[in-house]
Amino acid sequence: LSLSLGEGLNVAVGLYSTAVAARKPSAIRLYRETNEPVRSKTRTFHTQTGSLLLPSEIKKAQVYGKKQIVMEKDEVDAIKKFDDPGLFLIGFKPMEKLKLHHHIRPSVFIYPEEDEVKGSACLFSALLKKCSERNVFALCRSIFRRNYPPKFVALVPQMEEVDEGRVQISPPGFNVIYLPYADDFRTLDPPRCPSATQTQVDKMKEIISKLRFKYRSDAFENPVLQQHFRNLEALALDMIAPEDIEDLIMPKVDQIDQRLGPLAEEFKDLVYPAGYNPEIKPAPKRKMADAGGGAEKKPKVELTQDELKAHFQNGTLGKLTVPVLKEACKQFGIKTTGTKKQDLIDALNSTLAS
Q: Where is the signal peptide (predicted)?
């Protein structure tokens, strides 16, 4: 991507993910006879004639003001496009303005690409050094892919760190922090619960101090991934059963009980009433039926033909729910191949128009 610092001043940068969650590899479909990978193709057919539709024959539409506006694919792409992919510098702000709750998704890392634009590394290094000295971050507008909506990001400087053996621990560059829009902030109404007493707080502090240990992320393997690889190994080697795995994230109950001793029971006596048993669940409350008695009836989803025609003439079929549209198709004897809302509306429009 290009990092635009001003008119005619661009720096070529590359995006990197410093930490990615390990996931199971996606499944590969194989042909049954030759065991070779297969490629899937998607084709669109007309629901009434069954003829093959070309990409140029497929259009998209939206109802505005009781009128159906039909748009070409190029017009839809033009609406989605805000600008070319890249980063555009807006300004600088002190690091105190960046809060922890502004972090809405995993960040990425940018580093200069000297091969793309000569001088990018020198200018990028100067920008990084000044941002770090003045303790500020760069506020940018970002579009990382074509036809993607713009995002505001904060470029947080990160200087190079090396250990005693001059081995790099962290590279120099900017961490790209995605910032929320004003619409992303919500007003929460937290539940009001009784506050803990100082005695309860002190007892919980003792429990936490007893259960503390040095955490290392590389000491815990993902049991789902390990089981997946064991299954593949057993399948490849024609084993009767896969090898057992050790689930390292399961709590060690015996060691926990030995460390805590009587602290757990003391905390339980301070918080819960006498004779409380967490294993016993309260019986679920039954919902009271209406005054007339009997079970609640589902709302009626049928409409008369006159009501459906009125919706068709007003262009408000899109406001009806999928169950109502399905019942309407049954009334007119329309056979629909799909269950999508737009397919049901198109089938009703073609029938009512005729």
A: none
0.70 cut: is pTM over it?
Answer: no
The type of residue at 251 is P
In angstroms, the Cα distances linking 190 to 178, 186, 193, 198, 204 are: 26, 12, 9, 22, 22
* Helix or strand holding residue 146 (H, E): none
Assess contact for 106 and 173: CB atoms under 8 A. no
Question: What is d(CA 20, CA 27) in angstroms, rounded to the nearest whole number?
Answer: 19
Query: If you search the block for the tokens 């009125």, which residue do you land on?
Result: 310
pLDDT tens digits in sequence order for the chain, 354 residues long: 888 888 878 889 999 988 888 888 888 888 888 889 998 888 889 888 888 888 888 888 888 888 888 888 888 888 888 888 889 999 999 999 998 888 888 899 999 888 888 888 888 899 999 999 999 999 999 998 888 889 999 999 999 888 888 888 888 999 999 999 988 888 888 888 888 889 999 999 999 998 888 888 888 888 999 999 999 899 889 888 888 888 888 888 888 888 888 888 888 888 888 777 777 776 666 655 544 545 455 545 567 777 777 777 777 777 778 778 887 787 777 776 666 777 777 777 777 776
Query: Taking a C-beta distance cutoff of 8 angstroms, is the pair 12, 117 a contact?
Result: yes
Q: 82 with 150: CB under 8 angstroms?
A: yes
